[in-house]
Structure to design on (682 residues):
C-alpha cells in the first residue's frame, strides 16, 4: 500500500484542466436564478442525485465525475446523501410513473433555494421512452427544471460544463 | 418407475412451432407444462426465461446434462395457466410480471401481490387486455415475528448515486433477520414500446434496458434479430462485437471492484480502479465513438469499424492495465482490514445458486460454472481460448476474486482478438423475411446471461420482444445472502452482487 501511495506523490496528478462552463447552459441558468440566492451559496453546491427511471447510463457518467481525471470536488461541487443537505437535485430518467411521487417528495424535502438539473435525453423529453404508459416523460413535467444537460448519456465533460455553469453563472451575474 | 422426461421428450410431446431459431419451440398441454415445472423443481432443467404474450406463456429451459435448450409454450385462452412458482420459487417474480403486464393468472401462485404494477399507471395489463386503472393498494410486506425485532425501510431514493428500489429490513439489533426487496420503480414499459417498432429502433431501445450492459443487450438483440431473419453478421463484425463486450466487462469489473472496496471504507482501491475504468471508457470512445459503446452493435453487424489507430490504442490500454492492475490485486489481497470485511460476508450457498440457475460472477462465485460464452457459445468465442473462473466460497470476497480473474481472462481475450481480427465487411443488409419469424439469443454480459426472445413480422417489425436480465435470478438471492449479516454490511453485499434495477424493471 505504501508503494502505491508513494507513487501517487511522485507522479503528477491525473486531474485535467477545467473544460470551462457551457455558454448556453450559463445563459439558461442565469435566466432562472435569483441574485440573492446566488450570493448565499457562494461558489459551492451540494448535489443530490435522483434516478427517476434512468437506464443507469447517466449514473455511470455522474459517478465518473468523482474519479481522479475530473475530480469534481475541486470546483466546490459535492454529492450529498440527503435532499435535506442539497442545493441542487440532479435528476435522470424519463420519470417513471412508479417514481413520480418519490421525485416530488425528494424535491419537497430539499430546502429552498434549490435548483433542478435534468441530466440526459430522457430527463429532457422522455427520450426513447416518451409515450410509454409507464413514463411521465420530461422531468420538467413533474418539478421545475433550471438547467438541462443533454446526451445519452452526457459524458463527464458535458456534465462538468453544465455544473460549472451553475456555479459560474452566479459569479458572472455577481460581477455584472 | 418411469424415467423423468428430458427436455427433448417434453418438446417432442408438444406441437413443434416452425420458424423458431436456433433452438426448438413447442406448444404443450397444461399437463406437459406442469411436468416441465417438476423437472425445474428437481433441478434436472434450469429456467432460462419465463414470459407472456396476450394469450400464451412461454418458458425457456436449459438441460445441463445434454446442453439442450428449448422453449415450451402454453396457450391460455381462458386467461390462466398453472403457476410455475408454486413448485419452483425462482419463477416467482417473472410470473408476477406476467400477471401485471398481461392479466394472465398463474393458478396456484404462492404470492398474489403485484410486482411491476404499483397502481400508478393509467391502465392495468398494458400488454394484454388493457383494463382500466385500479385503486393503488398498500403493499403488504412479509411479516416477521419474534422478540425485539425492528424494521428499517430504505429507498426508493437511496443515499448514493444508484438506481431506485425499496429494501425492507427486519433486524434484531444489528443482525438482519429478513430482507425483502420491492422493485419495479424504474419500469419504463420497454416491451410495450418494442411492439410494432422497426428493428433498428428496437435495437437502440434494447441498448437502453440497462446502461451498464448496453453492449450485451445490443448484442443479444442483434443476434436474435439475425437468427430470426436467417442471416449472419460478417465474421469481422462478430469479432468486433466480442471486443466491445470484453471492454464493457473490463469497465464494469474495475468500477465494481473499486466500489466494493469503497463500501468497506477502503477508498484507495476505489480511486485506482476508477482510473482504470476511465481509461477503458476513453479507449472505447476513441475506438468506437462512444464511451459506453452504445448503439455500436446493430442487427447485421456493427456500426463502426476499428482502424489501425484503434488497434494500437487498445494495445496500449491492455499494457497499461497489465502494469497497474496486479499491484491493486496485491493490495486487495494484503489488506487485512479489507479482507476482514469481505471474507465470510454475504455468503450465497451453492445450492441456492444452482436452484436459481444464477448466472454471472454471482453464480460462478458459488460453484456454478455456467457462462454463455462457453456454452451454448457464439462466435467468436468458439474460436478463442479463455478461462471461466469458478469459486465455491460464495462470499463477497469470492465474488471479487471471480471478477479479478475475469479481468485477466478478458485481457487475454482482447489480445487474441486484436491478433487475429479477420478482415472484411462489418455489416450486412437485414432484408425482411416476408413472414413472421421467431428467435432467441443468449449472450454473456458482465453481470451474467442476457436472454432476448423476439418475433418479427413479415415486414421486419417487432411483434413481441422479451428481454430477460440476469438480475431476475440474482435479486432474490441477495435476500438470502444478507440473512444473518449485520445491517452495516448490506451496502457491501449489495455492491458485490450489483444487480440491475433498470434491467429487471424493464
Amino acid at each position: 500500500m505504501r508503494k502505491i501511495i508513494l507513487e501517487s506523490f511522485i507522479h503528477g496528478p491525473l486531474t485535467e484542466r477545467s473544460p470551462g462552463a457551457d455558454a448556453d447552459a450559463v445563459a439558461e441558468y442565469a435566466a432562472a436564478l435569483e441574485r440573492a440566492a446566488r450570493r448565499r451559496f457562494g461558489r459551492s453546491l451540494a448535489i443530490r442525485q435522483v434516478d427517476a427511471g434512468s437506464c443507469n447510463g447517466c449514473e455511470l457518467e455522474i459517478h465518473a465525475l468523482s474519479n481522479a481525471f475530473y475530480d469534481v470536488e475541486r470546483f466546490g461541487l459535492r454529492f450529498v446523501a440527503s435532499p435535506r443537505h442539497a442545493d441542487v437535485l440532479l435528476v435522470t430518467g424519463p420519470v417513471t410513473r412508479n417514481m413520480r411521487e418519490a421525485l416530488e417528495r425528494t424535491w419537497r424535502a430539499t430546502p429552498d433555494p434549490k435548483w433542478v438539473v435534468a441530466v440526459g435525453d430522457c430527463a429532457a423529453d422522455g427520450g426513447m421512452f416518451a409515450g410509454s404508459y409507464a413514463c411521465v416523460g420530461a422531468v420538467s413535467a413533474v418539478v421545475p427544471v433550471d438547467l438541462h444537460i443533454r446526451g445519452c448519456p452526457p459524458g463527464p465533460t458535458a456534465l462538468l460544463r453544465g455544473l460549472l455553469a451553475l456555479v459560474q453563472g452566479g459569479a458572472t451575474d455577481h460581477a455584472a | 418407475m418411469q424415467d423423468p422426461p428430458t427436455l427433448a421428450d417434453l418438446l417432442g410431446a408438444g406441437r413443434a412451432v416452425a420458424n423458431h431459431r436456433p433452438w426448438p419451440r413447442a406448444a404443450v398441454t397444461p399437463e406437459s407444462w406442469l411436468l416441465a415445472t417438476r423437472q425445474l423443481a428437481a433441478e434436472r432443467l434450469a429456467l432460462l426465461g419465463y414470459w407472456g404474450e396476450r394469450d400464451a406463456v412461454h418458458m425457456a429451459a436449459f438441460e445441463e446434462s445434454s446442453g439442450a435448450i428449448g422453449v415450451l409454450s402454453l396457450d391460455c385462452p381462458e386467461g390462466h395457466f398453472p403457476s410455475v412458482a408454486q413448485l419452483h420459487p425462482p419463477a416467482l417474480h417473472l410470473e408476477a410480471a406476467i400477471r401485471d403486464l398481461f392479466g394472465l393468472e398463474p393458478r396456484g401462485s404462492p404470492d398474489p401481490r403485484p410486482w411491476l404494477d404499483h397502481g400508478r399507471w393509467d391502465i392495468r395489463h398494458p400488454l394484454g387486455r388493457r383494463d382500466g386503472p385500479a385503486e393503488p393498494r398498500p403493499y403488504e410486506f412479509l411479516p416477521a415475528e419474534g422478540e425485539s425485532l425492528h424494521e428499517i425501510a430504505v429507498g426508493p431514493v437511496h443515499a448514493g448515486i444508484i438506481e431506485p428500489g425499496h429494501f425492507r429490513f427486519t433486524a434484531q439489533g444489528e443482525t438482519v433477520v429478513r430482507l425483502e426487496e420491492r422493485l419495479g420503480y424504474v419500469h419504463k414499459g420497454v416491451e410495450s414500446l418494442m411492439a410494432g417498432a422497426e428493428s433498428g429502433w428496437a435495437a437502440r431501445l434494447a441498448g437502453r434496458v440497462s446502461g451498464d450492459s448496453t453492449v450485451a443487450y445490443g448484442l443479444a438483440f442483434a443476434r436474435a434479430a439475425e437468427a430470426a431473419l436467417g442471416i449472419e453478421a460478417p465474421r469481422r463484425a462478430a469479432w468486433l462485437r466480442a471486443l466491445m463486450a470484453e471492454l464493457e466487462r473490463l469497465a464494469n469489473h474495475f468500477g465494481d471492484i473499486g466500489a466494493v472496496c469503497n463500501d468497506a471504507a477502503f477508498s484507495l482501491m476505489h480511486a485506482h480502479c476508477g482510473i482504470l475504468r476511465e481509461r477503458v471508457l476513453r479507449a472505447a470512445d476513441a475506438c468506437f465513438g462512444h464511451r459506453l459503446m452504445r448503439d455500436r452493435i446493430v442487427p447485421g453487424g456493427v456500426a463502426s469499424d476499428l482502424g489501425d489507430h484503434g488497434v494500437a490504442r487498445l494495445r496500449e490500454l491492455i499494457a497499461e492495465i497489465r502494469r497497474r492492475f496486479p499491484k491493486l490485486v496485491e493490495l486487495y489481497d494484503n489488506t487485512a482490514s479489507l479482507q476482514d470485511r469481505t471474507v465470510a460476508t454475504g455468503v450465497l450457498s451453492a445450492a441456492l445458486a444452482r436452484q436459481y440457475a444464477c448466472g454471472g460472477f454471482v453464480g460462478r462465485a458459488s460453484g456454478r460454472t455456467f457462462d454463455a460464452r462457453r456454452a451454448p457459445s457464439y462466435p467468436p468465442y468458439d474460436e478463442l481460448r479463455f478461462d471461466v473462473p469458478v469459486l465455491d466460497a460464495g462470499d463477497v470476497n469470492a465474488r471479487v476474486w471471480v471478477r479479478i480473474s475475469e479481468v485477466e481472462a478478458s485481457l487475454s481475450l482482447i489480445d487474441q482478438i486484436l491478433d487475429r481480427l479477420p478482415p472484411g465487411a462489418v455489416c450486412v443488409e437485414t432484408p425482411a423475411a416476408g413472414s413472421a419469424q421467431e428467435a432467441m439469443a443468449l449472450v454473456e454480459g458482465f453481470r451474467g446471461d442476457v436472454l432476448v426472445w423476439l418475433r418479427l413480422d413479415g415486414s421486419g417489425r417487432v411483434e413481441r420482444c422479451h428481454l430477460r436480465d440476469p438480475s431476475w435470478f440474482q435479486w432474490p438471492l441477495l435476500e438470502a445472502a444478507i440473512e444473518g449479516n449485520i445491517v452495516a454490511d448490506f451496502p457491501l453485499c449489495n455492491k458485490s452482487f450489483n444487480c440491475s434495477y433498470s434491467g429487471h424493471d424493464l
